[in-house]
């Protein structure tokens, strides 16, 4: 594999690492890189910061360039608050990333990010070519390039899954409507087809996570302007969705302790131990986080099936899908390693590197099929290497083979779960709706982002777990409070931005 070799003075701001004193290498410089900790390290696997991928990147990029790579873990469920603290203290890693647009806009407003235009021109020619002008445009704020937008390969966001073996045992068909879905949950609860000893969870949910495909199908007809500018709590039909979730909770059909499961570990444990009958996960999550394989190891005969049970007023299975943008990759203004950071990302945009970072070592983590598509090996050794592999290949969310047909096949490369993965992607795309996106920062959203995010979580938890008699007043009161503490200002500014955008 080609290796990028650089030569520059370690203490010279014009270039990173490298040689000095007649060609002798100086002390290596340290480049710190953010890494999500998803709390899913398999037993016996090395820590995230000592993985095969870390060693690979150090050997292939770090060592030739006299750069020591240091990975800094950030809990996935707390990434924005954690980064806010690190940014405020000028202690953030040299490369950070987030999926939160408001967080990015806030850091730009505070002057906390390095402008990347000149750095990309000087150190990132391959990176610019790989991402392309359209995708790079997602990282332009107020006319300047502040982020490197990662490429999202699969636009499907979330997919409902169900225990097919439970359906088969009960002689039931996969639900195709919301009413059928409810009847299936009731049967799971009453008949416990998984023989869980009373521990059955018909519908497993996480703390404020992946309710969208259900909630969105309760939304009633609205104009594009309303879709773009109304907060979800005020969208017509949203209240009905939460009333339905409240009903499910009070009938014992939803995870009883979801409000305490802030890191999602309880959900993961319940799923892989065979207690959950239905759930909504990120589209590729059951395979790449090994839920499915671990479930089948713990519960022989268990099978998961992607389903699309929720229907809206038009009979469509609407659900949110992603923009082509994945995460925003950034360099804090306080970083002294901006050149090294861009050179690393430039090196990562080579397809040989992309392939290795997305597939691990051949013969241990994968084998090549007849068509050249890597096939994951379903072994404990492979799982100890490949857990969280996508987070190291931060430029790309999803498998990228450089060819559309091969890319699609590669994202379902595990032969054991190929049909599951392809069906999951297809269902996740079905009737997909892009989230509202504006062509300028929404200042009120930046200002109130954390406050409104926290209030949103509170509304989810309290309205779902409320007594049915208290639901209507509680929902209305909390939605009104949401608007009072900043939601109205966000709505007003989004309305203005939307109307300006439509005039262009």
Description:
The protein has helices at residues 52-62, 79-88, 101-109, 117-123, 125-136, 164-170, 178-191, 212-216, 224-229, 238-250, 265-272, 285-288, 291-298, 338-348, 351-359, 380-386, 389-392, 404-410, 418-429, 443-465, 471-503; strands at residues 19-20, 24-25, 29-37, 67-75, 96-98, 140-141, 144-145, 148-152, 158-163, 201-204, 276-282, 304-306, 319-320, 325-330, 366-368, 374-376, 396-397, 432-433. The protein is of the alpha/beta class. The chain is globular. The model is unreliable at 1-24 (pLDDT under 50).
Radius of gyration: 24 Å
> What kind of assembly state do the chains in view correspond to?
single chain
Supply the helix-strand structural class: alpha/beta
Q: Using DSSP, what is the number of strands? A: 18
Strand order of the largest sheet: 5-14-8-17
Strand percent estimate: 5-15%
Distance between the ends = 47 Å
Structure summary:
The chain is built from 21 helices and 18 strands. It has helices spanning 52-62, 79-88, 101-109, 117-123, 125-136, 164-170, 178-191, 212-216, 224-229, 238-250, 265-272, 285-288, 291-298, 338-348, 351-359, 380-386, 389-392, 404-410, 418-429, 443-465, 471-503; strands at residues 19-20, 24-25, 29-37, 67-75, 96-98, 140-141, 144-145, 148-152, 158-163, 201-204, 276-282, 304-306, 319-320, 325-330, 366-368, 374-376, 396-397, 432-433.
